[in-house]
Amino acid sequence: MSDAVPAGARAAVITASNRSSRGERTDTSGHLLAxxxxxxxxxxxxxxxxxxxxxxxxxxxxxxxxxxVDLVVxxxxxxxxxxxxxxxxxxxxLEREVPGIAEAIRQASRExxxxxxLSRGLAGTVGPALVVNLPGSPGGVRDGxxxxxxxxxxxxTQLRGGDHRPGGGPG
Length: 171
Description:
- The protein is an alpha/beta fold.
- The chain has helices spanning 18-21, 28-39, 54-66, 86-90, 99-108, 138-159, and strands at 10-16, 43-44, 48-50, 71-75, 96-97, 123-126, 129-134.
- Strands 1, 2, 3, 4, 5, 6 and 7 form a 7-stranded mixed β-sheet that branches.
- Strand 6 and strand 7 form a beta hairpin.
């Protein structure tokens, strides 16, 4: 399946990183993610960079979702260090989890990067929007986009109320 992203689709990118939020490190993963989403046909505004703190990540998620975007993708904060709290910030906001997306992202690079299975990223929906947590590395972003690219058009059409096509998969 390789449905095109619906016309006018908008995405928001949020980077969760203490160092990037303090200007100590360039946010390469967030900018790479925004560029890749643009290549897929999304209108993407500026990348939002926030510290690894649940309330600040949630505020950024709520702001993005409140702006009416179709997709919010976070990068960073999905690992197992004490400051990795993006899943904890995301989970309470999700209306429905879509665990297959997060599982596929973890498995995408497992042979090359065995530690990819340590990512605790989530995927789910909030109203008509899809929210996905990706790891905070350029490689994790590339692998995540490779998983998302073939399904984004279909899932966004479904979230907008589109009907199932024959043979289009589970409902």
